[in-house]
Write a structure and sequence with these properties.
The chain has 142 residues and is α+β, with helices and mostly antiparallel strands. A hairpin with a 5-residue loop joins strand 1 (12-14) and strand 2 (20-22). The protein has helices at 26-43, 47-59, 71-77, 80-97, 105-116, 126-133; strands at residues 12-14, 20-22, 60-62, 65-66. The chain is globular, with a radius of gyration of 22 Å. The protein has a four-stranded antiparallel sheet. It is built from six helices and four strands, in the order E-E-H-H-E-E-H-H-H-H.
Length: 142
């Protein structure tokens, strides 16, 4: 099942084998970077490959469960071209779903418009609407 992100895009990218790449929280990305640093030191490996493996280990799932325990397990399971391909697909998906400061002004304006028309809960703003219409109580004179 594909859930929507806060900008209205998908949080998962389904793959042809039934697995999916999931967007990660900021904390998960920071944890993956820390793991990648340790992994690169332990195996004297390529830092970029280790970083991609650690990101993918958290992102690549089937039925909501990770397919690899950590970056090292992913490196043992996949070849370098497979890691590079999945990492490229995840990065493109993440960039398309979570645009950054590098985006053009026109793209950001389009996203703002899409966000402003994004369907919200039926109760969105209900309390503020009710309280906004109620009369203010006058301070009692003593």
């Amino acid at each position: 099942m594909t859930r929507a992100s806060f900008l209205g895009g998908a949080e998962t990218l389904p793959l042809s084998d039934g697995s999916a790449l999931h967007l990660l929280s900021a904390m998960e990305v920071l944890q993956a970077r820390a793991e990648a640093g340790r992994l690169a030191e332990e195996i004297a490996g390529e830092p970029a490959l280790c970083a991609n493996a650690c990101i993918l280990a958290r992102s690549w799932r089937r039925r909501g469960k990770p397919l690899c325990q950590d970056g090292a397990a992913l490196l043992e399971r996949l070849s370098v071209p497979q890691v590079q391909d999945l990492a490229r697909r995840w990065a493109e998906f993440e960039r398309a779903t979570n645009p950054g400061f590098h985006e053009s002004e026109a793209r950001i304006d389009a996203l703002k418009k899409a966000w402003s028309t994004y369907p919200r809960s039926v109760l969105y703003g209900m309390c503020s609407a009710i309280f906004g219409r109620s009369r203010r109580k006058r301070a009692s004179k003593r």
